[in-house]
Amino acid sequence: MLDEPVGLSEALRPLYLYWLAVRGEKLIPSRADIDPVTIPRELLPNIVLMDIILSPLRFRYRLMGTAITEMLGVDWTGRYVDELPGGGVHEQCAETLKAGKPGVYFSDQRRYDPNLMQHKSLRYERLLLPLSDGGQSVTMLLGGTLVKSSHW
User: Fold this and answer.
1) H/E/C letters for each residue in the chain?
2) Is 0.90 surpassed by the pTM of this model?
3) Highest CATH level, class, for 13-151
């Protein structure tokens, strides 16, 4: 049994348990093991799926849930993580790729809300889970992201 990632919240634990269940006896579950119909429904808006490009190392959002799009104020589907303002996410993805096991990360971001004409500070929790093409090497990442706190 794999140790639960340090800092994992109760809110993202169902996604981690789902990943463990579809992994079965394999070291890393494959993308084919992931069926959106079986992912806990309440987490679907907070899910990302990322392709890994190895040379040079980049991560591309294949799918971005609606709650994450709303948090960021833009849909990054089809775009690269290293294009995000503020950085940090690329390093978290690279760490998960290298470790080949789940990781929990926290990020802070300031976002301007034009409706309120103010900046908002957001703290995110991100769970990144490796996926493979055949059970060994990491070829994709499945993630869940939640806002932990926000203030003006």
Assistant:
1) CCCCCCCCCCCCHHHHHHHHHHHCCCCCCEHHHCCHHHCCHHHHHHEEEEEEECCCCEEEEEEECHHHHHHHCCCCCCCEHHHCCCCCHHHHHHHHHHHCCCEEEEEEEEEEECCCCEEEEEEEEEEEEEEECCCCCEEEEEEEEEEEEEEC
2) no
3) alpha beta
Mean pLDDT of the chain: 87
- Return all residues near 104 (Cβ < 8 A) that are at least 6 apart: 5, 6, 7, 8, 12, 125, 126, 127
**What gap in Å lies between CA 96 and CA 47, rounded to an integer?**
16
Distances in whole angstroms, Cα of residue 119 to Cα of each of 70, 83, 113: 15, 21, 6
pLDDT tens readout for residues 94-137: 999 999 999 999 987 766 666 666 766 777 899 999 999 876 78
- Tell me, what amino acid is at 49? L
Please give the Cα distance from 71 to 51 (Å, whole number): 21
Q: What is the pLDDT of residues 49-78, one digit of tens each?
A: 999 999 999 999 999 999 988 877 789 999
